[in-house]
């Protein structure tokens, strides 16, 4: 997300890109369906991921206002977005694989919080993601 935030800051692009968000959501729901997940139950998880990503980007931009980062250049946005799309597919594959053994449980929270780490991702963001994950179901 640092590369996305940096690219957008360098090119004076807004963090929120509703067209891109719609593409991400549509692609994720289509991938979820291929994997046997209920696309409707996946949608809140994808929205939570998008919101977390935007929060991370805003936090980077705020940090750079106070202390610009010297000597670092973001990778091209298209390259990073392709990488994120691949990671999203991997996440959905892992979710589907885990759900075949049974639904996620509130007791999985500790491991989730320990595993999901990203600079500028805060505990409330993680809670939103985890709550959305608990609701994901296999298609009937």
TrEMBL record:
<feature type="domain" description="Chorismate mutase">
    <location>
        <begin position="1"/>
        <end position="61"/>
    </location>
</feature>
<dbReference type="InterPro" id="IPR036263">
    <property type="entry name" value="Chorismate_II_sf"/>
</dbReference>
<dbReference type="Pfam" id="PF01817">
    <property type="entry name" value="CM_2"/>
</dbReference>
<protein>
    <recommendedName>
        <fullName>chorismate mutase</fullName>
        <ecNumber>5.4.99.5</ecNumber>
    </recommendedName>
</protein>
<dbReference type="InterPro" id="IPR051331">
    <property type="entry name" value="Chorismate_mutase-related"/>
</dbReference>
<comment type="pathway">
    <text>Metabolic intermediate biosynthesis; prephenate biosynthesis; prephenate from chorismate: step 1/1.</text>
</comment>
<dbReference type="InterPro" id="IPR002701">
    <property type="entry name" value="CM_II_prokaryot"/>
</dbReference>
<keyword id="KW-0413">Isomerase</keyword>
<keyword id="KW-0732">Signal</keyword>
<dbReference type="InterPro" id="IPR036979">
    <property type="entry name" value="CM_dom_sf"/>
</dbReference>
<dbReference type="InterPro" id="IPR008240">
    <property type="entry name" value="Chorismate_mutase_periplasmic"/>
</dbReference>
């Amino acid at each position: 997300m640092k590369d996305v935030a940096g690219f957008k800051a360098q090119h004076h692009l807004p963090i929120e890109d509703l067209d891109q968000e719609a593409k991400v959501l549509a692609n994720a729901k289509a991938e979820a369906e291929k994997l046997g997940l209920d696309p409707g139950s996946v949608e809140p998880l994808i929205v939570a991921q998008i919101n977390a990503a935007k929060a991370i980007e805003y936090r980077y931009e705020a940090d750079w206002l106070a202390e610009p980062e010297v000597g670092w250049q973001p990778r091209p946005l298209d390259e990073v977005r392709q990488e994120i799309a691949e990671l999203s597919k991997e996440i959905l594959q892992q979710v589907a694989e885990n759900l075949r053994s049974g639904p996620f449980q509130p007791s999985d929270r500790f491991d989730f919080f320990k595993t999901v780490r990203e600079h500028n991702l805060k505990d409330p963001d993680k809670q939103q993601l985890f709550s959305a994950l608990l609701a994901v179901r296999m298609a009937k």
